[in-house]
């Protein structure tokens, strides 16, 4: 994952700067990202997705960010699916852990965790993160049918018939 906070190819933009003095670990309080997700650590590696979301300063005393990212997968067997990751990141830890809190498409109802580490600092504004995703998806979660509110109500009233799209 390539997080580029300035210069050519910028993928992260400051949205909000707080009223307190800047935290020593970051020049921004809230950042919007539309990063590059590549198969390997090089920026010209095969693109496989776009991490899109935000990270924001989560502590006044520690280098901690609160992160919410949807990984939009654009290649491979999960093309068109997403996986949603959220959590707390202390940037001074070598390996950081975030929660997999959901997904869409073939990754619907995904759960698990992501371990990530800073693989390389290409420059002062380009950080490469290595992600190790551990997630599972219930066997029937990616099925095309779904339950409507009406069906759920019928089920709770003892009616066992159901419609599926």
Automatic annotation (TrEMBL):
Any one biological process term the GO annotation gives: phenylpropanoid biosynthetic process
Region of interest (Disordered), residue spans: 18-49
Cell location: Secreted, Extracellular space, Apoplast
InterPro entries named among the record's database cross-references: Allene_oxi_cyc_Dirigent (IPR044859), Dirigent (IPR004265)
Keywords: Apoplast, Secreted
Superkingdom of the organism of origin: Eukaryota
This protein's GO CC annotations: apoplast
Record's function text: Dirigent proteins impart stereoselectivity on the phenoxy radical-coupling reaction, yielding optically active lignans from two molecules of coniferyl alcohol in the biosynthesis of lignans, flavonolignans, and alkaloids and thus plays a central role in plant secondary metabolism.
Subunit-structure text: Homodimer.
Family: Belongs to the plant dirigent protein family.
Protein name: Dirigent protein
Organism: Arundo donax
